[in-house]
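Sanity check

After download, print the first record. It should look like this:
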Amino acid sequence: MTLIELIFTIIIIGAVFTVIPRIIYVSNKALEFSKREDSMFNMMGKIMDISLKEYDENNTNSDDILVVNEPPKYVLDCNASNGYRIGGFKGSRNCLNNIGESYIPTNKNGEYDYIEGYNGVEENTSLYGRTYYSLYIKVGYTGEWNKSNYDYAKGSLDYDFSSVSDNNKTNIKRIYIVVSQNGNNVSSVNYYSANIGHIRIESVRW
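Expected structure tokens:
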């Protein structure tokens, strides 16, 4: 090997080792973006899945609007004494059976037929024992309109969709999903579900 060939070989090897780290860096960035994209799709898919579940455990056996407070405390409370909430009429959704709303547990294992069954669930996506990202699901009740603050003449409501607690019952549940990667929150999404019961048309729930 001549001196010139040796010099060219050193130059080529130097160029290769200069480029390789850049290629690895770009590849890692692309992989990172792909993982985040996958986590976002997973998060939205999970919200869609939860949105199709029953509002409450007691709705798996009953079509009723569930009773939250008796006597009614909130504008949306169904009145167990007459079987209807404000604006209700005979033959519409009702609470004639006086079935109460459930408390929200922390992840009853395997009970995913209703929304509150997802509370406290953590789902990890991993490969070869390494966790790429995690989904954390929280279910709680939101604030609601108090009857004493409602202007019936104006028919207007001021409302704040903030989380109250797991078990301070109201007529609206808030599902909150956070995507976390390496201990950092990547994204989050909220979904709200209301206590409206079911009606049956030709024996099919609506």
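If your output differs, re-run the checksum step. Summary of this record's structure: The beta strands are 122-127, 130-142, 163-165, 172-181, 184-194, 200-201, 204-205.
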